[in-house]
Amino acid sequence: VQLQASGGGLVQVGGSLRLSCAASGSIVSLNGMGWYRQAPGKQRELVAYILSGGSTDYADSVKGRFTVSRDNAKNTVTLQMNSLKPEDTAVYYCRADSLTYGEDGSPIAWGYWGQGTQVTVSS
C-alpha cells in the first residue's frame, strides 16, 4: 500500500489548510486512516484518526479546529485545518492501518506511512 499526501504549505496564523491522502496498491481493507505530525526536536504525535465506521479521535490541541474525514470507497483521508496556530507547524504524515488474518486465523496488523508534507504557520 502506498500513501500519497498533498496539501501542505505556508499559511498565516488563523488561516486554513486542507491535507489530503490517497491510498493505492494492494488494498484489502483499511481499518483506520489518519494524520500524525512531527515538529523539529519533538516526537511524532497523533493529530487525528478515523476508523472505517466513522469514529474519530483527535489530539486535545486540535479539537474544535481540525476535522478528519475519509472516503472509504476511494481510500482517501482528508484533514481540514482551521484557525491554525504557530504550534501547528510540523511535517504532517498520513497513516493507514489494516488487519488481515493468517492461515491459522491469527490477526496480522499492517501499518503504512505516507511521505510527509510540511505545514508552516507564520505569525
Descriptive report:
This protein has no helices and 11 strands. The strands form 2 sheets. Strands 2, 4, 5, 6, 9, 10 and 11 form a 7-stranded mixed β-sheet that branches. Strands 1-3-8-7 form a 4-stranded antiparallel β-sheet, with no helix packed on it. 0% of the residues lie in helices and 59% in strands. It has strands at residues 2-6, 9-12, 17-24, 30-38, 45-51, 56-58, 66-71, 76-81, 90-101, 107-113, 117-122. A hairpin with a 5-residue loop joins strand 9 and strand 10. It is mainly beta.
Strand fraction equals over 45%
Ranges with pLDDT <50 over ≥5 residues? none
Count of discrete alpha- or pi-helical segments spanning 4 or more residues: 0
Give the SSE string. Answer: EEEEEEEEEEE
**What distance separates the N and C termini?**
37 Å
Please state the average pLDDT score: 95
How would a textbook summarize the main sheet?
7 strands, mixed
How many beta strands in the DSSP annotation?
A: 11
Helix content percent band: under 10%
Overall morphology: elongated
Radius of gyration: 15 Å
Given the helix and strand composition, which structural class is it?
A: mainly beta
